[in-house]
Amino acid sequence: MTTATQPVRPTTAADLTELVGTELGPTPWYSVEQDRVNAFADATDDHQWIHLDTERAAASDLGGTIAHGLLTLSLGPHLSSQLIKFDGFAHSLNYGYNKVRFPAPVPVGSRVRMRVTVVSADEVSGGIQVVTSQVMEREGSDKPVMVAESIARVVAAS
């Protein structure tokens, strides 16, 4: 496994293939604050108390409100774009995820960062499918807060 300077900017399928097995990162720390959690709850209509009710959450075994797991996942495109940019291609799209896990919570007020490893880069009809392993860690925690296998499709510039 090798490490690269960020952000890397591949422009061809060969560039992407060379990145297979390369760990990128970590990103700078990103603060997860209550206002972002509240906005995510409003955007998704997920108003579970553990994310929003600071008093009730403080009395829980978690000791305070936590970010939604899907909020953590949704930070993936922003954070991974700090590590790898597809701006040398016509465009790139999120294609999906093969696996997503949230091994530990993200307490509101904590900071997270991401590491990305390029797992594969395969030519497919209309472009290149890039699979990356995304691992998000929380400052001060031994356990990752999110582990996901992300799939992107990129289209070569004409």
From TrEMBL:
<dbReference type="Pfam" id="PF01575">
    <property type="entry name" value="MaoC_dehydratas"/>
</dbReference>
<dbReference type="InterPro" id="IPR039375">
    <property type="entry name" value="NodN-like"/>
</dbReference>
<comment type="similarity">
    <text>Belongs to the enoyl-CoA hydratase/isomerase family.</text>
</comment>
<dbReference type="InterPro" id="IPR002539">
    <property type="entry name" value="MaoC-like_dom"/>
</dbReference>
<dbReference type="InterPro" id="IPR029069">
    <property type="entry name" value="HotDog_dom_sf"/>
</dbReference>
<protein>
    <submittedName>
        <fullName>Putative enoyl-CoA hydratase</fullName>
    </submittedName>
</protein>
<feature type="domain" description="MaoC-like">
    <location>
        <begin position="19"/>
        <end position="134"/>
    </location>
</feature>
